[in-house]
Design goal:
The structure holds 2 protein chains of 2 kinds.
Chain A: E1 4-8, H1 9-19, E2 24-27, H2 34-45, E3 52-55, H3 59-71, E4 76-80, H4 82-97, E5 103-108, H5 122-125, E6 133-136, H6 140-155, E7 163-168, E8 176-180, H7 184-190, E9 207-208, H8 214-229, H9 232-246, E10 253-256, E11 263-267, H10 271-284, E12 289-294, E13 296-298, H11 302-308, E14 314-319, H12 330-339, E15 347-352, H13 362-376, E16 386-387
Parallel strand pairs in A: 2-3, 2-4, 4-5, 5-7, 6-7, 11-12, 11-14, 14-15, 15-16
Antiparallel strand pairs in A: 1-8, 6-13, 10-12
Chain B: H1 2-8, H2 29-41, E1 45-49, H3 53-58, E2 70-72, H4 78-94, E3 104-110, H5 111-116, H6 119-128, E4 133-138, H7 178-184, E5 189-194, H8 198-210, E6 215-220, H9 224-227, H10 234-243, E7 250-253, E8 256-259, H11 270-273, H12 284-305
The chains are: A alpha/beta, B alpha/beta.
Chain lengths: ~400, ~300
């Protein structure tokens, strides 16, 4: 196994991309993604990574360049945040329908306005339905591991879809953590060379991106949806083999003291670790509390999720984005929808918190739990959602 | 020049890479230009097309008119997609994953995709110095969506968003000089062409492909539908655009300008404007101001070629 090093998570992510022997990187700078692409351009400048680093003039062109390079069969990486994602939005959707296995790290940051560079999940939730495989990471090690995972899954012939790795801006990108690097041998074993299903090459001309008349569009969309759903076996296999190789076992839905608990917190991303601290504290107080972490966001892991919440009475869903004028946070509304037909559907309590880097501490989660308890006991009204921590 | 045309026509390949059966309008000189460009480049090419007429007419799923590798992603990014294809192939060749075939990368789009919405992506690709050819098929408006004005629509032309009304005489701005913008990027090769001069067009595209670095060819592509012109007049009106000096044919290579079809004496612009329905409403005063502008621009260009 590889070496364990203390390193900033962004630099580790870039090192992982280097170890994956990427061919093309196209990126435009945006905080807090910058350290990742800066380090990649250093690696290219120093000859440590043999790749084309394309310093494009916008994120829209970043994703467009990625489409071109992935279409000719080059292993392709990009990285962005927030407004950058919004600018490339149009092409993000097209990349999925073209079945181009681009890997993107999304350093999650709030969407303007007001302008903010800090972390929440409003960016990724804006492209929820873009057709990419989407995973969330909780710490630097998970980011490193998931770079390898992403290239492997995206490029596998049965999947051929782009992947987004979500990591929280600043709270993850800019912290130094002990991270176990993979050795070259392990990378070689885990990640085969990219052999594209279709490739733009004069020896075998293909047409990519033809337009769809109404007579064929529905079928094309159904096929695309099937492709994303059918990616799951490959996703599970890639996690299983990674577990065998490096000893870290990832699941679409991960749990912490969830089984047999009356209440669980549902988290995505870096908040998970703080919530675990709160769960420990509450359990010490004798409360029946656990935690469920959603790692795989698309394709949504319906079976694993329903299994994980079986017997649970209340789910406290933490959302880090607002659906303005809608039913609360985007995660909670999905969870409600996923569980609606279930017998003994748990009560969903939805807290919207941690916008634009606002700290949410273990004490806050304990307070949320107590508030949820009061609702359960009927002492306060059950709200559809609560925006937590608003300064009055 | 005319004699040269007679003989050289036999040398043009009979092979079609932009095949018959596409759905372009009758008399579409843009489709003709695309066909000539495809002939010029042959089969060792990767094409990135912008959204627009030529994309729509040639790729209704599950059919295609492209006998060469072809990709369409979106409206404003053909240059970025082409630069990605070029960079990806370059990396794969350098790393020994693909043999070096000397493939040409072509970005193509209409005037809207090039001079308006895709200008930033194109400027970025030029500035980064990718080895690719970009061809703009300029039919002087957004024809695919129904003849709306673009920045490449000429002064006085009536379009569906610059209609000739009681107060305004159609388009009130002068056509954006895209070739000059290309030249300002210091790229090694820029040319103007027109499908009414197919051999000149083919020659320029071949030269653009042979040159290392970015090359740009701006092709006036007559659109009978949008120009309000009988379909059989498309080639004829393209020649008049050149002979009146409205659209001079020239090339710019490594800092030097050269007229490729030097008109000894320009015909009056009215000869070009009169047959077209889009200019039907122009008053003698407006035609006069167009004439003055055309003469002035033509003389400026001529002065550059004399340097």
């Amino acid at each position: 196994m590889g070496e364990r090093v203390g390193i900033e998570v962004s630099l580790a992510a870039a090192e992982a991309v280097k170890m994956a022997n990427v061919d093309v990187i196209a990126a435009y700078p945006i905080t807090p993604q910058t350290h990742i692409v800066e380090h990649l351009s250093e690696l290219v400048a120093d000859g440590e990574l043999d790749a084309e680093f394309i310093p494009v003039e916008s994120e829209h062109s970043a994703m467009s360049v990625c489409c071109g390079s992935s279409a000719v069969g080059a292993r392709t990486f990009t990285c962005t945040s927030s407004q950058g994602l919004a600018l490339m939005n149009e092409i993000v959707f097209i990349a999925a329908s073209l079945r181009l296995p681009i890997v993107m790290i999304l350093a999650n940051r709030s969407m303007s306005g007001p302008l903010s560079i800090w972390n929440d999940h409003t960016d990724v939730m804006s492209i929820r339905d873009c057709g990419w495989i989407q995973v969330f990471t909780e710490n630097g090690q998970e980011v490193f591991d998931h770079v390898m995972f992403a290239f492997r899954v995206a490029e596998s012939a049965s999947v051929s879809l782009p992947i987004i790795i979500n990591l929280d801006g600043f709270v993850l990108t800019h912290v130094i953590e002990p991270i176990e690097f993979w050795d070259d041998e392990t990378v070689k074993k885990y990640l085969p060379d990219f052999k594209p299903v279709n490739q733009l090459h004069p020896d075998n001309p293909v047409t990519m991106g033809a337009f769809g008349l109404p007579s064929i569009f529905t079928e094309a969309k159904k096929a695309q949806n099937e492709a994303l759903i059918q990616a799951k076996p490959e996703i599970l296999k890639a996690w299983k083999e990674m577990g065998d190789l490096v000893g870290r076992h990832y699941q679409p839905v991960e749990t912490y003291h969830a089984e047999g608990s009356e209440t669980v917190f549902l988290t995505m991303g870096s908040f998970g670790e703080t919530v675990s601290v709160a769960v420990d504290e509450l359990r010490n107080q004798g409360k029946s509390v656990g935690q469920i972490k959603l790692r795989l966001w698309r394709p949504f892991p319906f079976d694993e999720f329903r299994e994980a919440v079986r017997g649970i009475k209340r789910i406290i869903v933490l959302d880090r984005a607002v659906s303005f004028g809608g039913p609360g946070g985007p995660v909670a509304s999905e969870i409600r929808s996923v569980l609606y037909q279930e017998e003994n559907m748990p009560t969903i309590t939805n807290f919207l918190c941690g916008f634009a880097g606002r700290d949410v501490t273990a004490q806050d989660y304990i307070a949320m739990y107590e508030q949820a308890e009061q609702m359960a006991q009927g002492r306060v009204r059950q709200e559809d959602y609560i925006i937590y921590g608003v300064r009055e | 020049m005319e004699q040269f045309n007679v003989y050289a026509a036999r040398l043009v390949t009979k092979k079609e890479y932009f095949t018959p059966g596409h759905r372009a309008c009758q008399g579409c000189a843009e489709a003709l230009a695309v066909r000539m460009v495809a002939k010029a480049l042959g089969k060792n090419v990767v094409v990135a097309s912008a959204t627009g007429c030529m994309e729509i007419v040639s790729s209704p799923l599950p059919f295609t008119n492209w006998a060469v590798p072809w990709i369409h992603v979106a409206f404003e990014n053909a240059a970025a997609v082409a630069s990605g294809a070029e960079a990806g192939t370059k990396a794969l060749v350098r790393k020994g994953k693909l043999p070096d075939k000397g493939t040409v990368f072509l970005g193509m789009g209409g005037d809207g995709a090039t001079t308006d919405i895709g200008l930033q992506a194109l400027s970025g690709a030029w500035e980064r110095g990718h080895d690719f050819v970009y061809v703009c098929y300029d039919n002087e408006a957004y024809m695919n969506t129904g003849i709306q004005r673009s920045s490449s629509t000429p002064f006085g032309a009536s379009t569906t968003t610059s209609p000739a009304g009681k107060v305004t005489p159609g388009q009130v701005t002068w056509k954006k000089n895209m070739a000059a913008i290309a030249i300002a990027h210091n790229i090694p090769y820029v040319a103007t062409a027109c499908s009414s001069y197919p051999l000149d067009l083919i020659q320029k595209v071949k030269k653009a492909a042979s040159i290392k670095g970015p090359a740009y060819v701006h092709v006036l592509s007559v659109c009978p539908t949008g120009w309000r012109l009988p379909t059989e007049k498309a080639i004829w009106i393209g020649r008049l655009a050149v002979e009146t000096g409205v659209f001079p044919l020239y090339e710019y290579e490594n800092g030097k300008y050269r007229m490729t079809y030097d008109v000894p004496e320009l015909r009056p612009v009215i000869d070009y404007l009169k047959p077209q329905g889009r200019f039907r409403h122009l008053t003698p005063e407006l035609i006069q101001s167009i004439q003055e502008r055309v003469t002035e621009e033509y003389n400026k260009l001529k002065a550059k070629t004399a340097l």
